[in-house]
Write a structure and sequence with these properties.
Blueprint (H helix, E strand, L loop, with lengths): L4 H4 E7 H5 L4 E5 L10 H18 L7 E10 L17 E7 L1 H26 L9 H21 E3 L7 E3 L1 E3 L3 E2 L8 E2 L2 H15 L21 H19 L13 H6 L1 H8 L5 H9 L4 H18 E8 L2 H10 L9 H13 L1 H4 L3 H13 L6 H19 L7 H13 L5 H22 L19 H12 L6 H12 L5 H25 L8 H10 L25 H13 L11 H10 L2 H4 L1 H12 L2 E3 L7 E3 L10 H5 L5 E4 L20 H4 L6 E4 L4 H4 L4 H11 L4 H11 L7 H7 L4 H7 L7 H23 L1 E3 L8 E3 L12 H5 L1
Parallel strand pairs: 2-4, 2-7, 3-10
Antiparallel strand pairs: 1-10, 3-4, 5-6, 8-9, 11-12, 13-14, 15-16
Helix pairs in contact: 3-7, 3-11, 4-5, 4-6, 4-7, 4-11, 5-10, 5-11, 12-13, 13-17, 15-18, 16-17, 16-18, 16-20, 18-20, 19-21, 20-21, 21-23, 21-34, 24-34, 26-34, 30-31, 30-33, 31-32
């Protein structure tokens, strides 16, 4: 007989009293639940929703305040409870899969109501039972005592024996433990400690003694979330005090007047399940600000909270079904991220009782630590989406959408493929952890934190690696994370020694190849040129060179095993760049690269790309005396700028236009003559220069004859030389000579511009563009292992195995210019 839905789960709507005052009930928070984190706004909304429902009850006796669904497992065998004193566990344990934030907040509300009601009851009755002949006061006393008893049973249960008979209704795994033995009981979580501390205090004080006012403080070194919990408790207390005293709170509705309660029998029945004594009702109509009125308002509000706040409690048959329901519902107003719905699956696979302290727990803590940076809301959602898109590409070469439902299904299905194998499951979770670590500390570290390669020696973060990471990140080239992650992960988990060193070197080769490929590809296209599809093909093993898939777990028996090899990656990327098929790069030789790159408005297409090309071109160059205005390759160290410091030094290296963006006097009008074309001409690389940004007000739109003087001064070898150049020019600038001279630094590319006496025109701009692009090519070609032919008829881009870096002994770069 097929399984019926009612056998899988049951759902019942219950009032707060029905749910929490059930004899033998214990609510249990499993270890994957987040700490308490409700903000003041959420508590205010909870109170306002409750007040709104109470107000509506005066008009409609069937009014309830419905607070959504709580998803639980009825843990009959107590498999989720850890630690445990088995004989002393409550008879009915509900493990809370979803809804702990609301339940915790409601328990804070109940404790606060109990505390305030006790305080105000003392003000009215001084611990003495009223004379039975005073019917109104006796009735108020009776209602107060009844509500206090019902409130207390909602947040704790008192056992009949033992030296620790108080059981908080809600506790948390690992840090709390129910027991009637004082030596074994343990209530260290913020919520369990608050409930237990107050319950013991309230339970021990006889009604004839003035009750202690409960004002909890956060404990030093207490668990995460205690500060928020204590603050919310204080805010609830303050709000209830004002409401009971009829003080208006701008964010909240007011309590109904006591006359409404006194005049409407249906209202009384809905709140208390009985009618109030008529004499009490007559008295209530007369009360305004007396202590009795304050007390009755608290009693009225408490009765509504207990009897008219409703929750739908879903009890799953077991963890699998409960988690399925959990994944399909959004009960908090904020969608659960795909990681939040995935985490319980990991706990299930590891077994709840074994999860804490396991390798899986440590892996998931690493992921959670990264995501915690984003708090809650849309930032967290976006960060999770991006993380899982990267993980899916690195794990299975999947182009995962950012749709929440798709991401949930992907994480469920791919994890389930491994859940029966301890080793396969561990490898999957390790890769997910590596993804979060790489994204959060290497790709985009937290604010003010330096980039680092966690798990590798500091020496692995070479200056070139830092430069490439900074560039790719500024380019927002997130597609590159997945291939880089594969090399990083291999290095982190390699055995220390030669194998680790080899893998670290492989990582650097891979990031250089990736960077060079990206630069050459993007520099020859108006947009991205569908570069993402190239990387996805590499990850999937759709190869031009026979390279295996780069993704960790591509499920295709016909493909070779995953290949994490930097030389293979270089060959594959070089082949894609050089292949003339329309779906590939179409750059088979140097001439095609130069022709495409110098004709594009690179400044408009991508400023990070433009800046990277210029820095690569400028590095260790000198002025070309045979070609004033141009530069050529110099000796190593003569003018270093293609470094991580150079990339971050926007003080000296800000992109400026030589011929201004808008037509002005003193410039060749061919830059602006053709309508619609000028906008492209001035943005070409030949018309761009890296110069101190602070000098822009002086450079501005000056004519070429004046601008070149400034270039010469800004690129001078010394401050004194800069002053001489400026003073001898006889020109006045927006900034003082002293200010401009202080900006100077030996920058051959600026000094060279100052040496050009002839006009600045589009023809010379194109000539300069070719020089710059050849220098950049010479700098980057070894990173990708290519040696392009000069010939436009030669379709072959030769692959070179050894990287060639131009230096003082390498004439190839100088010969190119």
């Amino acid at each position: 007989m097929p399984t019926q839905a009612r056998e899988i789960f049951e759902a019942q709507s219950k009032s707060l009293r029905e749910l929490l005052s059930d004899n033998g009930l214990g609510l249990y928070l499993p270890p994957y639940q987040r700490p308490y984190g409700w903000g003041k706004d959420k508590v205010e909304k909870l109170l306002d929703d409750t007040l709104h429902g109470l107000k509506n009850l005066g008009e409609a006796p069937d009014s309830f305040t419905f607070l959504g669904t709580v998803i639980t497992i009825h843990d009959v065998n107590h498999v989720t409870v850890q630690p445990i004193v088995k004989p002393e566990v409550p008879s009915k344990v509900l493990t809370v899969i979803d809804g702990q934030q609301r339940l915790s907040s409601l328990l804070l509300l109940l404790v606060s109501l109990h505390n305030l009601t006790r305080q105000h009851s003392w003000k009215v009755f001084k611990g003495k039972t009223p004379d039975s002949t005073d019917t109104a006061r006796a009735s108020l006393y009776s209602e107060t005592v009844g509500i206090l008893q019902t409130l207390s049973t909602a947040f704790y249960e008192r056992k009949n024996f033992g030296d620790a008979p108080i059981y908080p209704r809600l506790i948390r795994a690992f840090v709390d433990q129910w027991s009637k033995d004082a030596k074994l009981k343990q209530y260290e979580s913020p919520i369990a400690n608050l409930i237990y501390t107050y319950s013991v205090e309230a339970d021990a004080e006889p009604p004839t003694v003035k009750p202690t006012d409960f004002r909890p403080l956060a404990r030093p070194g207490a668990g995460e979330g205690e500060g928020d919990l204590i603050r919310r408790f204080g805010e609830i207390r303050a709000a209830l005090t004002k409401l009971a005293q009829r003080t208006t709170i701008e964010e909240l509705e007011d309590l109904p007047p006591l006359s409404t309660l006194a005049n409407q029998i249906e209202f009384q029945r809905a709140l208390f399940n009985h009618e109030l004594d008529p004499k009490l009702c007559r008295w209530l109509r007369e009360l305004e600000d007396e202590p009795e009125a304050v007390l009755m308002r608290l009693v009225m509000f408490a009765a509504y909270v207990l009897n008219r706040i409703a929750l739908t409690v879903v009890q799953g048959k077991d963890e699998d079904y409960a988690f399925t329901i959990f994944e399909s519902l959004n009960t908090t107003g904020e969608p659960l991220t795909a990681f939040e719905t995935f985490l319980p699956r990991v706990v299930m696979a590891e077994k709840v009782q074994d999860y804490r302290g396991s390798d899986a727990h440590e892996r998931m803590k690493a992921v959670q630590s990264y995501l915690d940076r984003f708090g809650v809301g849309e930032k967290l959602q976006n960060a999770t989406r991006e993380l899982l898109v990267t993980f899916a590409l690195a794990e299975t070469a999947k182009k995962l959408s950012k749709r929440l439902s798709d991401q949930r299904v992907y994480m469920k299905d791919t994890f389930d493929n491994h859940k029966d194998s301890v080793d396969a499951r561990a490898a999957y979770l390790r890769h997910l952890s590596d993804t979060a670590t790489f994204v959060g500390t290497t790709w985009e570290p937290a604010k003010e934190a330096p980039r680092q390669l966690v798990g590798l020696p500091a020496s692995a973060m070479t200056d070139t690696v830092k430069l490439c990471l900074a560039f790719l990140n500024d380019l927002n080239h997130t597609i590159a994370i997945a291939p880089l992650l594969r090399f990083y992960s291999e290095a982190v988990h390699a055995e220390e020694g030669e194998e680790r060193d080899k893998r670290i070197a492989e990582f650097e080769k891979a990031i250089k190849a990736t960077t060079a490929f990206t630069v050459f590809w993007r520099a020859t296209r108006s947009g991205t040129g569908n570069i993402d599809s190239q990387y996805r093909s590499v990850m999937a093993g759709d190869s031009l060179t026979g390279m295996g898939p780069l993704a960790r777990a591509v499920s295709n028996s016909e493909q070779p095993k995953p290949t994490v090899d930097a030389e293979a990656l270089k060959e594959e990327l070089a082949a894609r760049l050089s292949n003339t098929d329309k779906k590939y790069g179409g750059i088979p030789n140097l001439a095609s690269f130069l022709a495409a790159a110098k004709s594009l408005p690179l400044y408009k297409n991508s400023r990070p790309l433009t800046r990277f090309l210029l820095l690569a071109a400028y590095h260790d160059t000198i002025e070309d005396p045979d070609n004033p205005g141009l530069i050529k390759q110099g000796k190593a160290g003569v003018a270093p700028c293609f470094t991580s410091d150079g990339w971050s030094d926007e003080t000296h290296f800000t992109i400026e236009h030589i011929a201004p963006q808008q037509a002005t006097g003193g410039w060749d009008q061919d830059f602006y003559s053709e309508k619609g074309i000028a906008d492209k001409i001035v943005h070409k690389i030949g018309n761009l220069v890296l110069a101190p940004g602070a000098a822009n007000t002086s450079l501005s739109s000056r004519p070429w004859t004046e601008k070149k003087v400034l270039y010469a001064a800004l690129g001078a070898t010394t401050t004194e030389e800069a002053k001489t150049i400026l003073n001898d020019s006889g020109l006045a600038f927006a900034q003082s000579t002293e200010e401009l001279a202080q900006m100077s630094r030996y920058l051959p590319h600026l000094r060279a511009l100052g040496q050009r006496d002839a006009e600045w025109d589009p023809a010379f701009m194109d000539r300069r563009a070719e020089v710059l692009l050849r220098l950049a090519y010479a700098r980057l070609k070894g990173w990708l292992g290519i040696a392009w032919s000069e010939s436009t008829t030669d379709p072959v881009a030769h692959h070179v195995d050894d990287e060639v870096e131009p230096d003082e002994d390498d004439e190839s770069a100088e010969n190119l210019v």
